[in-house]
Amino acid sequence: MTVDGTDYTDDVEPRTLLVHHLREALGLTGTNVGCDTSNCGACTVHVDGQSVKSCTMLAIQADGREVLTIQGLADTWDGEGSLHPLQQAFHEAHALQCGYCTPGMIMASLDLLAENPDPSDDEVRHGLEGNLCRCTGYQNIVKAVRAAAVQIRQGSTKSQEVPA
Amino acid sequence: MTVIDDRPADVGGVGTAPWRKEDAHLVTGQTTWTDNLAPVGTLHMAFVRATMAHARIGSIDTSEAAGMPNVVGVFTGADFAEECPTLPCAWPVTPDMVHPAHPPIAVGKVRFAGDPVAVVVARDRASAVDAAETVLVDYEPLPAVVDMEQSLTDEVVLHEDEGTNKAFFFSMPTGADIDETFAGADVVVKRRFIQQRLLPTPIEPRAVLCIPQAASGDFTIYSATQIPHILRTMLAVVTGMPEHKIRVIAPDVGGGFGAKLQVTGEEVIALLVAKRLGRPVKWTETRSETNLTMHHGRGQIQDIEIAATKDGKLLGLKVDLLADMGAYLMLVTPGVPILGAFMYPAIYKMDAYRFNCTGVFTTKTPTDAYRGAGRPEATFAIERIMDELADELDMDPMELRKLNWITHEEFPYEMVAGLTYDSGNYEAATARAMELFDYEGLRAEQAQRRADGDRIQLGIGISTFTEMCGLAPSRVLGQLDYGAGGWEAATVRMLPSGKVQVVTGSSPHGQGHETTLSQITSSALGVPFDDIEVLHGDTQVSPMGLDTYGSRSLVVGGIALQKAAGKVVDKARKLAAHLLEASEDDIEFADGTFSVKGSPDASKSIQELALAIFAAHDYPEDMEPDLTGHAIFDPENFSYPHGTHLCAVEIDTETGHTSIRTYVAVDDVGKVINPQIVEGQVHGGIAQGIAQALYEGVVYDDDGNLVTGTLVDYLVPAAPDLPSFTTDRTETPAANELGVKGVGEAGTIASTPAVVNAVVDALRPYGVHDVEMPCTPERVWRAIQSGQKGGAQ
Questions:
Q1: Looking at chain B, which terminus has fewer C-beta neighbours within 10 angstroms, N or C?
Q2: Residue B643, beta-bridge partner list
Q3: How big is chain A by its Cα radius of gyration, in Å?
Q4: Could you check whether the bond before residue B224 is cis, i.e. omega within 30 degrees of 0?
Q5: Residue B412: is the preceding peptide bond cis (ω within 30°)?
Q6: CB–CB of B463/B751 below 8 Å?
């Protein structure tokens, strides 16, 4: 599979979850585990451009597919060496406190904005209902996602295509 | 990847909102959570846990597990009984408190579902979990004791050696004679409120990694903890191992809310297994384990009785609590309800008060601190009964409050419960909140809907709260028999290049210490925000500290820092006078620069002086070549943030569904260091308080099984479940060096009664006088049905 633009070839136990493969085999610990019932969304990544809770998917199901985690997100944005607009907006709007839910929250927001580039407050709230944050009360997350939406509509993201 | 910040350079001092220093690594996934760490050769632990609430342990057969691939060891309670007979409880609230042994792995008996029975240690986590499933435990079941009042009959005793399920009885009568006061009152209102148990639910589960250094006998422990310093000391105390050989590091910690203010059996076992096997040992809990074993919050039955004149003047208050300890006393379990003892009179003047509390063991997960710890419970009960009294007197609930609160010119004010509130302006915060809320307009709409018999009814809830935080004056803690003090430490070091290193003994897990403490330092020393580094959370880097809980990091730790920075300025002033050949009295300090009065060209910046003292070529004879400042601050008083929260709910009277239409919070947290961080704390706090009011509640079945064992069964609100909040502040400076008050718990303390008061207010025309939390649609609907039949008190 390809993760954040890098090709990996590994033998995996059939029962290994994608999130555990990312964290333990590939050392990509930016993606977190927060529950064991797919409720919290802390482990959200993208697989082939769609958000997936990586605790609900086996690593072998990602065979041959393209995975994007929080650690590769900034590289998909045109601005040289800068954060992705969602990362920058979460920072500016104080949309994170402890930061544990943040990777999943940002990856879920990315999917939300891909489907709806100009969401209302309510649409953001409903779009993120699969991700739990215990610190912020969500208000600044909503603010950040809408701020990032403006930024993304004005800019563009680099292709996630990786040279073969 | 870098953060873009093109804002003016003067953002960074006290009162400004620089974006947080903490964020860059958090938004890019370059984090150091404890679970991310595993040195080569790390062994992993999996616990075998009690599957029933109360049982004698017959035999434990570990033979199959021990023979499984990759398994290195299997241990039971007996293996550690000598090394650690009991986990600590640091708060014996009465001299005769029952304090039963709490072994890190159960010995002889299990007393709640989840109590650890054995631990499997293996070369990888999956092997440990697989092997743990094969451990056979032969239980002799005993009856569960789930209900507190049933527990007090002592028909079934959890800790047989103690002979009783009553942990303690604490009584605090203060002020005028309570019985005479109540006998002479025109009106007495009595209510029973239930504080359901809550799961604190930080999104990062607990994790611990212990790395031994066999040759030196040193142990380094990484833990997802709020309290690295307390944990180090307690690990030494409970294991008898030397404190100076234990280093505790709290790396990135993903929320705590009180639940990581704990010394857990798993941490102790990680240390003892690492010691025994000489290899790194790690444990990360699953969320199901979190729900089952991370301490729960709240869990009280509150009988509260208030006496007043017919005009609404408060005379006295009686509170009788049953506080659910769960199966064991953990670090501050018994102290949590006692913290509430001081808060029931809240902001109201009265002459008589009596607080009684009985601590009760039950066969459930132990309780302990959860955001607010005792104060949310107290604030809920008093704010709820103020509404009930207003209803009884046929007064507007806000008018009743105004009639009884301390007015701003009466501060400092000595309360009937014994605290002296240093500052406050309840009138100002309330006036602002009512304006933002449109109180009169909403009351008019409510009257119209009632008159129209509208299916959707409107309710208005008030909470004019205060709380005591900034834990705590050490002398007061001593009077309350707490096992430690409440001071905090800070060190400020000038590096040779003029950069500044700040060391704090408080230990963040989301609060933004690095940012806020940099701002205080920037203003105190006049150095740029970005030239300051804040170090924390490692007992080797920050050897002294009492960590983060009870909204103490700013009001205790921040003031320690202000004092430490002041010592740096004093030393630098002396050096500047020497180098500028002037008298110290003629040296002025502003914006980081020392200059001679009257000759502004003769000046030295504090950052230049840092290099001069490092070189140490020329400095005063009566001075050491050093500009370091170190301070320990022990507060004289608690901190008393306050505010007025107003909530309007709409209730569909046919389905019982409640939705929050408007939520206004005007908080007074004194002088604000970073308004953005303060607002964030208020938002998150309100969310957790609303969660208690409407959504969350731990459920056990009659056999003591946890029904809400996963996040499927326990409703932590997501974004669509919460409204946007309108927040504002008034600023009444506290009587301390920075004028600041705590903010971490205020929102949680304030919001729960505001919401439930609104729910009950909406339903008053239906004869409803209470709805038990969480106010789910079913409970609201049932309250309407029974209220119409004349019940529902």
A1: C
A2: B465, B667
A3: 15
A4: no
A5: yes
A6: yes
Residues B36-49 pLDDT 10s: 999 999 999 999 99
**CB under 8 Å to B183, separation ≥6 — which residues?**
none
Chain B neighbours among A 36-75 (CB < 8 Å)? 36-37, 39-40, 42, 69-71, 73-74
d(CA B604, CA B598): 15
- Residue B225 to residue B260: CA distance in whole angstroms: 5
Which is it for strands A44-47 and A66-68: parallel, antiparallel or unpaired? antiparallel
Confidence of residue B129 (pLDDT cuts 50, 70, 90): very high
Q: In what order do the strands lie in the sheet with A2-3?
A: A6-7, A2-3, A66-68, A44-47, A50-53
Between residues 80 and 109 of chain A, which touch chain B (CB distance below 8 Å)? 81-83, 87-88, 90-92, 94, 96-103, 106
Q: What is the pLDDT of residues A69-89, one digit of tens each?
A: 999 999 999 766 789 999 999
Query: Is the CB of A2 inside 8 Å of chain B's CB atoms?
Result: no
Domains, chain A, with CATH or none = 2-70 (3.10.20.30), 74-154 (1.10.150.120)
User: b/e for B258-288, b at 16 or more Cβ within 10 A?
Assistant: bbbbbbbbbbbbbbbbbbbeebbbbbbbbbb
Two structure tokens written together for B534: 């804040």
A25 contacts on B by Cβ (under 8 Å): none
Q: What's residue B214's pLDDT?
A: 87
The tokens describing A112, both together, are 């939300």
Q: Which domains does chain B have, with CATH numbers?
A: 406-413+421-468+638-788 (3.30.365.10), 487-633 (3.30.365.10)
Rounded to whole angstroms, the Cα distance separating B48 from A137 reads 35
CA B189 to chain centre: 31
Determine, for residues A37 and B725 on separate chains, whether the beta-carbon distance falls below 8 Å: no
How far is Cα A83 from Cα B629, in angstroms, rounded to an integer? 37
| SS3 call for B726 | strand
Each residue's pLDDT tens digit, B134-189: 999 999 999 999 999 999 999 999 999 999 999 999 999 999 999 999 999 999 99
Best mutation target among B23, B70, B548, B674 (most A Cβ atoms within 10 Å) is B23
Centroid of chain to Cα B618: 49
Q: What is the mean pLDDT of each run of 10 residues along chain A (164 residues)?
A: 97 96 97 97 98 97 98 88 94 98 98 98 98 98 97 71 38
Q: Grade residue B3 by pLDDT with cuts at 50, 70 and 90.
A: low
CB-based burial label for A159 (10 Å; 0-12, 13-18, 19+):
exposed
CB atoms within 10 A of CB A98: 28
Cβ contacts of residue B302 below 8 Å, gap of 6+?
B192, B193, B194, B195, B319, B320, B321, B377, B380, B381
Give the C-alpha separation, B238 to A164, whole Å.
58
CB-based contacts of B479, cutoff 8 Å, min separation 6: none
- Euclidean distance between CA atoms B629 and B491, whole angstroms: 6
Residue A116: how many other CB atoms lie within 10 Å: 13
